[in-house]
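Journal club prep, notes for RB
We'll compare a predicted complex against what the paper describes. Inputs for the flavin mononucleotide case:
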Amino acid sequence: MKVLGILCSPRRGANSDTMVSAALEGAAEKGAETKTFAINEMNIKGCQACMYCKTHDGCAVQDDMQPIYKELNDADAVIIGSPVYMWQYAAQARLFIDRLYAYLNPDFTFKIQKPALVFISQGNENADMFVESLKKTPLIGLSVQDMIVVTNAKLPDFVSKQPELLENMKQAGRKLVDDL
Ligand SMILES: Cc1cc2nc3c(=O)[nH]c(=O)nc-3n(C[C@H](O)[C@H](O)[C@H](O)COP(=O)(O)O)c2cc1C
């Protein structure tokens, strides 16, 4: 059983990373093999709209999304962590999300179907501020079981200083695996 982490903050060790890591820890406790990709440290282009994926399996763009596709194809579940930047997913998350287009068939069915958790870290204190629009963003092939928003996360160690939040994330990771 494999659970894949997708880290979309540029800040290693900050809130999104802490959330994804805690959930992966919970998943590992339940026997999952885990692996994380940090999008910011990879060479990933936006979708080139070449439509190769509409007549073939896979994506024609030969960049660091290729190892991610390979792991996504193998994964049983996915955990994404992203900050809110300018009212929406950080650009690193948008790159990843746009490239999920490769999993969309011309008849709008999906080539993969995996459960996913999404962790959002934001500076704003209002948990309702961005979540509805984030929820409307389609993650092709990934079925979001839960989107957990952490508010007031202005400092990078905001989450790591709160054991009860960390336990919530771990529990979400355990549940993700239990529900497989
Ligand atoms: C470029 C930029 C844009 C941001 N835009 C928002 C925003 O629109 N709303 C918000 O609540 N926080 C915003 N923030 C704050 C981050 O969402 C917050 O610090 C988050 O916890 C960072 O996640 P990280 O610790 O995982 O890097 C922004 C931060 C940066 C650097």
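Talking point for the session: The chain has a mean pLDDT of 98.
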